Amino acid sequence: MMRRCNLTALAARSATLSVLFALPAFAATAQTADSAAAPPPPAAAQPPAAAEPAPAPAPPKGLSESVAAVVNDDIISTYDLGQRVRLLAATSGVQPTQETLPQFEREALISLIDEHLQMQELKRIEKEQKFKIIASDKDVEEELDGMAKQANTTKPQFLAALGKAGVSPETIRQQLKAQISWRDYIRGRYGSRLRIGEDQIKAVQTMLQADASKPQYEVSEVFIDASRVGGMNQAMQGAQQLISQMQQGAPFAAVARQFSASPTAAAGGEAGWISPGEMPPEVDAALEQLRPGQLSAPIPVKDGVYIIYLRDKRSGAGETLVSLKQAAIALPQNASQADIDAARTKLEALRPQIKGCNGLEAAAAKTPGVVAGDLGEAQISDLAPQFKSAAQSLQVGQVSEPIRTNVGLHLVALCGRHAAGSEMPNHDQIENRLYGEQLSMIARRYMRDLRSSATIETR
Question: What pLDDT digit, counting tens, does each position of 96-108 carry?
Fold first, then answer.
């Protein structure tokens, strides 16, 4: 049976952790490319004044660590907790303050408890089944190499930057060992058993086609699971504090990786393009009010709180987009009829030689006086009247008859046509998405069962 004591009332330990928590600014060498994608403050709201940072006195001599939690007889010390808080701050870009420090402590302790439960389970399975599951030191070092590469630095520089933030290299290695081991175990045990049926894929395709006429939103998300952090009040408070930090420059992607309970956390919160109905109704309502570049207020839903960053928005499939190329002869508006007829004869002779869009430039290059070019993609409604008529009547790959404009005579080739907002994922992308969602759901249920059967005490 699981027993939790004061798991959500960690503020009482703030004084102890404030002594441990002498966190200098995280060195620039450990900043990831995520900082370039940090959302600006919402256009409709002014960023709050910077909160006063948490005090960072030097640890007094002789300070001894104590027990922060016990997980099935495994001890989590206050040193472990202080280290994890520092790591959380360094890798999320969010600098703790007196107001936000309890949230950091809570998130750090929850993560440590989950990792202890995971490692205990993996050790049990290793003992029973007598094969290796837990990640090797080589696996951990390779993961560290990848993290350093993402941060555009080397592993020694990356670890040195963490060291300047007061984080021991062993702290991040322990975290990575637990994460890699659990991830690979879940994939190995359940991944091969998952089967995504064609009926599931076709159902998603049908839904996407039905939604093609609706507005679509490119979003990033942070989801705070209320059951994980101790209730809706804590989730709302935590969301508001994270929003305040992001308005002051904390990178959205880094915050999502450290604080979000959504499967998209591993991708920095990027959920891609979505249509109304794919997320809870409360999120859909908020998206209607946001403009690209805006960060939402906390959005409470049934089991937690969302923070949404709207990256872009596009209209539905009511408009048609076309891709065009042209082969043209320049003629002034007052060109003589003889010059126009000569140009028309030349283009009509060229037209049968053009075998689709890919061969247009090569064919035009063989005819003196003809210039070829890519006109790009545009909405049919935005085209000049002469080109609009051709775009509406041609089939993809066909070439128009010569078209007279004020600047010349043109052959127009239709290279592509599609409805605006209709760039739907293909079969394999849908299959991979469904596979990831089901695997994530299995992992969450597994962790829920481990927590419910564990004895967890916090001091």
Answer: 777 778 878 888 9
Residue the block writes with tokens 């999120």? 283
Model pLDDT, residue 423: 60
On the CB side of 85, how many CA atoms lie within 13 Å of its CA? Answer: 31
Strand pairing report for 456-458 and 371-379? unpaired
3-state secondary structure of 144: helix
Closest C-alpha to 413, from 370, 367, 365, 361 = 361
Q: Which amino acid is at 293?
A: G
Identify the CA nearest to 411 among candidates 343, 339, 333: 343
Q: Are 212 and 425 a contacting pair, CB within 8 Å?
A: no
Q: Which residue has the tokens 């984080």?
A: 167
Q: Which tops the pLDDT comparison, 263 or 317? A: 263
User: What pLDDT score does 258 carry?
Assistant: 86
Distance, CA of 376 to CA of 416 (rounded, Å):
10
- H or E element: which one contains 329? strand 320-330
d(CA 113, CA 228): 11
- Distance (Å, rounded) from C-alpha 444 to C-alpha 379? 44
Band the pLDDT of 185: cuts 50, 70, 90. Answer: very high
* pTM score above 0.85: no
